[in-house]
User: What shape does this take?
Amino acid sequence: MTGNIRNDIFFRLSPIRSVLFLSAILLLSGCAEVSIQPQNSILFMDSEIAGCSVQNREIEKFIFGTGDDVVLVIGAIHGDEPASAVLAHQLVRYLRENTSSIHSKKVIIVPVVNPDGLAAGTRTNANGVDLNRNFPANNRVDADWAGYSPLSEPESRLLFHIISEHGVGRIITIHQPYGCIDYDGPAKHIAEKMGEHCDLPVTKLGGRPGSLGSWAGLTMGIPIITVELFGEDINCTPDEIWQLYGRAILAGIYN
Assistant: This one.
């Protein structure tokens, strides 16, 4: 099914469409541009500015549900992976429109962790630091590209505080462009469930030095799943991206 969807999508691509899609992503990177209104005040707990980037762009988080089982979903920790932000925003839309689906969960979504990188089209933040190498994992390496100390960057500190403050018990981080589902820590069964609902194979890539996966999964023992979209997904519309991967993300939240 998903394979047919993907074929239908990519037969209809055009350079103009790609440019329009990227322009839409850049608009979404400013938190003030997200116009999502709650339909259920009990379910939709909060939409707030969680912090700011190096260049003072706002970073927004959405919280759905009141349960003790807390799931964090993040997109665009790398600014050159814009489809990840689109999928995260589509999850916000889905939960807003399906208010009965949360049950005992609390779902926290940060669609754009690296708004400066997203605006510039760069992997790193405005300081040239790879935010996904800036965590206090046991295997971290201090370097200019990873930061000379863990959590040196405001964007990585923001995620660290969210995970600590809310007692996050599961993390789904959306990336691009390797086309697979990776996991760290006790998350294999979750990754396999997610793989049943999309074309992405479950592939164990191994914890990268100082990555969120290494810190959360290996150092802290928090199940963390990395969803690597395909590079060509930049050419999909938001609805098409949700068709391809939405069920997998929901499986990661509920299984």
Observations:
- DSSP finds eight helices and seven strands in the chain.
- The CA atoms of residues 181 and 202 lie 5 Å apart.
- The helical segments are 2-10, 15-28, 82-97, 115-120, 154-166, 188-195, 212-219, 238-254.
